[in-house]
Amino acid sequence: MSLFSPQALQPGVRKREVFGWAMYDFANSGYTTVVITAVFAAYFVGGVAQGAPWATLAWTAALSLSNAIVMLTMPGLGAYADLRAAKKRLLTLFTAGCVLATAALALVGPGSVALAMVLIVVSNTFYAWGESMTAAFLPELARLESLGKVSGWGWSFGYFGGMLALGLCLAYVMWAQRQGMPASQFVPVTMLITAAIYGSASLVTFALLKERARPNPAALGQGGFKASMKQLQHTFHQARQFRDFMGLLICAVFYQAGVAVAIALAAIYAEQVIGFQQQETMVLIFVLNIAAAAGAFSWGYLQDRIGHKIALASTLLGWIATCVIAALSTTKGDFWYAAVIAGLCMGSSQSAGRAMAGVFAPQRQVAEFYGLWTFAIRLASIVGPLSYGIITWATGGNQRTAILSTSVLFVLGLLLLIPVNMQRGRAAALLADQQMSA
Predict the structure, then answer these.
(1) Which ranges in 105-223 belong to alpha helices (H)?
(2) Which among 375, 363, 342, 310 has a CA at the least distance from the CA of 73?
(3) What does the pLDDT look like over 261-285, one tens digit per residue?
(4) How confident is the model over 235-261, as pLDDT tens digits?
(5) How far apart are CA 243 and CA 425, in angstroms?
(6) Cα–Cα distance, 173 to 230 (Å, whole number)
(7) In contact, 282 and 39? CB cutoff 8 Å
(8) Domain boundaries, the chain
(9) Which CATH architecture best describes the domain 15-210+239-433?
(10) What is the CA angle 193-203-131, rounded to 5?
(11) What's the rounded Cα separation, in Å, for the pair 423 and 382?
């Protein structure tokens, strides 16, 4: 059987369409890799905020505000997308917003803390909206028994987009440093590179990906916002029916909070605690992306074979080990071990969660359910980095204590995963589809 077998796809779905969908993961990965993880995060703390004691907390506060906005809006946007068959139109709008805000980060210089925070809030909000909307296409493209591998295809391919953006930025940064340029001159150019890759690569998605959903006739006579809120309210009233999906959301809040710490603070920890230089940090994140791509791809096949729940649980054990190793690391060599394990777990845990959400989502409410999934992920993205920033501030800058505390989030996620029942959750989704068809 081919590694990319068409038998994994829904009837009528062609490989080129899946490639177009995966290209969005390729396009937007540069944003998280360069802006949130490798370059701008450390530049904000050390360059824009000039190493102030509150700098890490300010960075996590900006991310938390954007995530709060996404939390409060994405479930409603998802319901609207389902009722109006507007996933692709909204994805186009969200992409344009993130690309423009990322390019505008080139205007940020030392001392421009307020401008930097506003642009991070705007860009990260649009990024998260787009990430949720593209995930909602997954159940339309992949068969139920192949959700894991197809999700892994997209997620692993996405890391190569992150590596492309980071690789080009790293090459430019090394050249700029040889010319004696300060970070205030070369970091803005990396923002333009990242925005250009995001915008150009996403064009492939919009050219190949189809909007397969059809508008709900009953909703067309109502206002879009009113209809989506009514549908969302109905779903919450059915929460008991979807108890396994709701259990997964609570589990995700904890383990994704830990993942969010790794994404938002890896570069800051590497430079401030371990002593990495900026170009060393970029190489570290580049290798982490290679490990993440391998993890997402291989775990996608594994989770379809052994089950989504067991596959996710195994990655959470890896995350716990990562936090302990990182907290105990005293040399750059020690920290490399933690980074490689984190990379393998990062891609696999995120891909597995996305696939599990697809198993629990009724066909006619897929964007809405991924909106609720995004609600949990963005709540996690507030809890994780903000708690890390508060612990760091409260302990007088002790980031080792903060990273060790992060392991508790993965332990709680693992415990909350235990009662989630995949078969019962899938049966609830099928029942919901039957009720909507009646």
Answers:
(1) 113-135, 138-141, 147-178, 183-208, 217-220
(2) 375
(3) 887 777 788 888 898 887 788 788 8
(4) 666 656 788 999 999 999 999 999 988
(5) 7
(6) 50
(7) yes
(8) 15-210+239-433
(9) Up-down Bundle (1.20)
(10) 80
(11) 31
